[in-house]
Amino acid sequence: MAEVRRIELTWRIVREACWPGLVVLVAHTVLGDLFGHEPYVDPAMHLSGGAAAAFFFTRLPRLLPGYFGRPTRLVVNLLGFGLTSTVAVVWELGEYLSDLCLGTHIQRDVGNTLRDLLNGMAGAGAFLIADHLRRIRDGDS
Question: Torsion over CA of 91, 96, 98 and 99, rounded to 10 degrees?
Fold first, then answer.
């Protein structure tokens, strides 16, 4: 019974929180192949990825209340921004290690890496602001 509950919860998380990130990953692959990653697709996808990650991390406390307790909206937003920023750093570290160990050429230079980090963080910030404005409009706190 517990295994069924875990599977149901996993699918609920995918349906309600993961889907934007999956859309961004597929779009990045398809658009990158069609138009090339630079100069437009990669920055737009890092921005979108930051928004998708913030969406995911701000939905988790509601979907997994036993793990997070009852955090305030501010704490949820800080969690969303902080974890999205952490994911962006780890992602860029992964790209660096891939270039170093596997001989790929994902990262062009330090400026490209910092732009990707900034775009991910900006996407998270934009999502959090838009979500806050939506909550005000809907009278939701």
Answer: 150
Give me the residue label for tokens 């775009």.
119
pLDDT, tens only, 4-38: 888 888 899 999 999 999 999 999 999 999 999 88
Q: Which residues contact 88 (CB under 8 A, 6 or more apart)?
A: 46, 49, 50, 53, 116, 117, 120, 121
Q: How far apart are the first and last CA of the chain?
A: 35
The reported pLDDT for the residue numbered 21 is: 95
Kindly state the helix (H) or strand (E) to which residue 84 belongs, with its residue range. helix 73-97
Q: How far is residue 110's CA from residue 39's CA, in Å, rounded to a whole number? A: 15
Domain boundaries, the chain: 2-131
94 alpha carbon, distance to own chain's centre: 15
Q: What is the DSSP letter of 70?
A: S
For the record, the structure tokens of 70 come out as 């009852």
Residues of the chain with pLDDT under 50: none
Given this model, what pLDDT does residue 141 score? Answer: 65
Q: What is the dihedral of CA 18, 23, 29, 30, to 10 degrees?
A: 160
